[in-house]
């Protein structure tokens, strides 16, 4: 049996009903975009400083040390 009152009052089934889209693990898009911007800036600076350190280490390791 199908109730007309229930079908009129309910939303059409769709992707928005998926539980993952309403999870607290997925914040609203505006918050996500701002956090991503902050993280990407931080990560870029981390990568640059790591590259400097790794570059120095690579140069130091490439030059053989003489024992006097």
Number of strands: 0
**N/C terminus separation:** 95 Å
Q: Write down the overall mean pLDDT.
A: 60
Helix content: 55-70%
Helical segment count: 2
Q: In this structure, how is the largest beta sheet organized?
A: none
Task: Please tag this protein with its features.
68 residues; mainly alpha; 59% helix; 0% strand
Summarize the structure in words.
It is built from 2 helices and no strands. By secondary structure, the chain is mostly helical. The chain has a domain at about 35-68.
Give a brief outline of the structure:
The chain has 68 residues and is mainly alpha-helical. Helix content is 59%, strand content 0%.
How are the secondary structure elements laid out?
Blueprint: H1 4-9, H2 29-62
